[in-house]
Every structure is written in structure tokens, then in C-alpha cells.
Amino acid sequence: MKKEVYINSIGSVSVQKTFNNSEFLNEIVDYEGISVKAVDPNYKEYIPPAAARRMAKGIKMSAVSSQNAMKEAGLENVDAIIVGTGLGCLGDSEKFVRDLLDNDEQYLTPTKFIQSSHNTVAGSIALDMGCKGYNFTYVHSNISFESSLWDAKLQLANNEAEKILVGAVDEVVDHHVITHQFIEHIKKEPVSMRDVLNSGTKGIVFGEGSHFFVLSNKKQQSTYSKLLDMGIYNTLSNDEVSETIRHFVEKNGASIKDLDGVILGNNGDVEHDTIYHELGTSLFHEIPQLVYKHLSGEYDTASGFAFWLANKIFKTGKVPETLRWNDLPINNPKRLLIYNQYRGKNHSLVLLEKC
């Protein structure tokens, strides 16, 4: 039974200019708002214009990020496609229902309905590359990406597949922003990128993005890192978080001090960032701490952006200053831990090692 799981390539479309794999946060995109949209690449370079006009934002972003990942891995096809998403193509669902009401249930085109399901992205990618293998979509709130990653890890470990395309995608939907702002899950007032993590207010700045990775049990020249282990925990008390993380690291033959850094999911929600602050002054106080959601915004699969970040750090050996949360030195890190949670639930841990 092979246990090695390698990340052989990456692709990303996000609030930052991440669609160009040759760059790594060279130019930071600033914003001020309660929601922020992804920087669009030139979709004509990836998708025929006639087809792109009919596609939802999430599908277009995923077409770009998945094609970039496949190209970097030197592949035309894979054994499986696994995608995690919290909202899927909710925007097209909303448009279909609106058209249904506006047109009195008559003269409706089927496109928006067809594209409204959560598995549209995985299906669309499979059709484009002619992949007839395992095709699955996980809709598990803020652990949707981690669920997809875990599925891929198990398949590779059990030799059920050799090359798997794993993705994470979510898009900004206006109705979702309005309703979640009403229940104070999204901030009431616009916040700038520079201030969001120290805003001291309830709620988050909502974002979007698509992040794809080719995972394999075989290392190749383009390989970024090795996935050592991961863990998902639905419910943990604040007192249990620290001990759970410690046990997770130790069962992988290391201690907290052996980590070169930890990537934390702080999102600026004053009610729930306390978990990260407590860890920062206790369990993680002696290791470099990095943050990322001020760059990406918060969404169900934002941890996919953290996964992309970790792999870019490994490949370049550099840590951009905008990611630094404390002043401890970090140079050419070889082992990073990603820790994320949302509103005190669905905690996830991902341990990566540079190849």
C-alpha cells in the first residue's frame, strides 16, 4: 500500500493575480468592501468566447485553474476528478428562479438550470478533457476542499488511481452576500484589505476563487510537496483545539517546534478569530505564523488558497511579507501546517512537506 501523495502541479484564480504560475504575489490587489471578486484572466485564451458567455463565473475560473494545473503536470487526462464547493453554481440557480418568476414560468432556456447543480464544475472539466473516470463533488461547507483532498489521498494510498485532479471553487453571489450580511456573518460596513484582520467587528469579507491541483503517488520534476497527513474535526471546544493539533503533529513523528511555520485561517470576525489568537500566544508562539484570508476573502473553499500558498512557498523558498502574522524568521521552509475553521466548527489540519 503506497502512502506517498505528491502535489505535482497547481493552478489558481483568486482575488489576487494568481492565474500566472510564474509569479507569486508580486503585485497585491487591494480592495475595500464587504465582498470582493476574483481577478479575471483573459478567458478567451482558455475557453471559446461563445461558450464562455454561457458559463457561470465558477465554471470559467475552474476551466482556467484546472487547465493550468494539467499543463504544468504535463497531462492531457487523469484517472479521477474530485471537486469541493460550498455553494456550487448558486448564481445560476438564483438566475433560473428569477427568470422563472419574471417570465411566469414560460419561455425558459435550460442553460441556467443545467448549470445550477453543484457538480457542474467537475462534469464540465471531465467533458472538456474526455475523462470517463471517477467524478465526484463534495459539498461539505468549509471542509469541502479538505473532503476532496482526503478522498484523493485514500484513492492514491490504495492504488485505486495514479493521477487525480483535485479542486476547490466558490463564487460570489449577490443574494448570498445580502442574506449573510443580514445575519451578521458578513460585515455591515466595507473594510479594506489592510484592516480586515484587525477590524474588531463581526462577520467576514466574502470572496471567491478556484484552485486546482494534480495529486499523484509518483513524484515528477514539477512536484511541489508531499501531503503527509490531514485531519477533519466537526466539533471541538476551544480547550480541545490545542491538544488536537499537538496530537496530530506528534502522530506524524514531529513536535510543534519541528514545524517551519503554520498557516492560519484568521478572517477578521472578532467573535471567532479568538481561536487563532489563543493558539498564536500559546501553542504556536515559538513558530512563524502566516495568514491569508485578507488576500483571498473568506468562502467555503478558501483553504484551497492556503494550499496553493503553501506549495508556492515551497517552490520559491520565499514568504511574502503580506503573509506574516508574527516577527519570527522564516526562510526556505520545508514543513508547513495549515489550520482552518469557520465560526468555531469544521476544524481542518493539513500537513505538507517540501519535495
TrEMBL record:
Q: Where is the Beta-ketoacyl synthase-like N-terminal domain?
A: 38-219
Q: Per its record, what are the GO molecular function terms? A: 3-oxoacyl-[acyl-carrier-protein] synthase activity
A single GO CC term for this protein reads: cytosol
Q: Which domain of life is it from?
A: Bacteria
List the Gene3D superfamilies.
3.40.47.10
Tell me which Gene Ontology terms the entry assigns under biological process: fatty acid biosynthetic process
Q: Which UniProt keywords apply?
A: Transferase
Listed InterPro entries: Beta-ketoacyl_synthase (IPR000794), Ketoacyl_synth_N (IPR014030), Thiolase-like (IPR016039)
Q: Can you name this protein?
A: 3-oxoacyl-ACP synthase
Q: Which organism is it from?
A: Maribacter cobaltidurans
